[in-house]
Amino acid sequence: MSTTLEFIADHLPRVTADDVVRRFSATTEIRDAQAFAAELQAFVHERVQVVKLPATLEVQTVEQRLAGKAAALRVDTRWVPGATDIQRGRSARLEAFNQPHNLPLPEFARLANKVRQQIYKDIDARRLLALNVGCRGQRLPDWQLDPVKQQLTQVVLQKVEGIDNWTLYRALSEPLEGLGGRTPLEAVTDRPIDDVVKAVLNVLGVHEAERE
């Protein structure tokens, strides 16, 4: 007998004398309800044992079910962006790069009242977010001239690794559902920075518990 049917047969509800009287007394003369119940239980058990189920109905372990679901999500070939997709992405990145709020490094250094060398050091130490497109130099979002927004940017930079700066730029500057449709840069002006950082890390798929 298959494992599924074994499980079913062994876990069938017990037929009691009261069940027998309630179900059959109107149509059958029952002399010994207890014996009748025992025979009926044995009969049902025997019938279940002779049933054959397809292999696909066998009881699966949790691991087997999860493995089956994971296999259904896989594709035979990995998606690779085409030339059009790449060109569209480059155009969008260049358009963002040229936005007025993204300042050339010398201009940012002047407004921050720092020498260029210090700005380079801050970028290398992940204290400032810098963007680049090809050989056009680096540009820094001007929100980092605001102490609170610069702190938010620095905390996020320090907590993530292996995520490119353009992804971080979008995560910080685009509305998030977890912040009520506000951008992290807007929300951090009147919400605890830890809450905003958590929302940004969540959208980036970074969980601090996994990094401990």
Q: How does this model look, in words?
A:
This protein is mostly helical and about 210 residues long. The chain folds into 2 domains: about 5-75, no CATH class; about 85-210, no CATH class. The chain is built from 11 helices and 3 strands. It has helices at about 5-10, 15-25, 35-50, 60-75, 85-95, 105-110, 115-125, 145-160, 165-175, 185, 195-205; strands at about 100-105, 130, 140. Strands 1-3-2 form a 3-stranded antiparallel beta sheet. Strand 2 (about 130) and strand 3 form a beta hairpin. Helix 2 (about 15-25) crosses helix 3 and helix 8 crosses helix 11 (about 195-205). It is rod-shaped, with a radius of gyration of 33 Å.
- Structural domain count: 2
Number of helices, where a helix is a run of at least 4 consecutive DSSP H or I residues: 11
Say how many strands there are: 3
Q: How many strands, which pairing sense, and closed or not: the largest β-sheet?
A: 3 strands, antiparallel
Helix-and-strand structural type: mainly alpha
Main-sheet strand order equals 1-3-2
Q: Please give the alpha-carbon distance between the first and last residues.
A: 49 Å
Share of residues in strands: under 5%
- The overall average pLDDT, rounded, is 79
Order of helices and strands: HHHHHEHHEEHHHH
- Overall geometric form: rod-shaped
The rounded Rg comes to 33 Å
Helix content: 40-55%
Uncertain residue segments: none
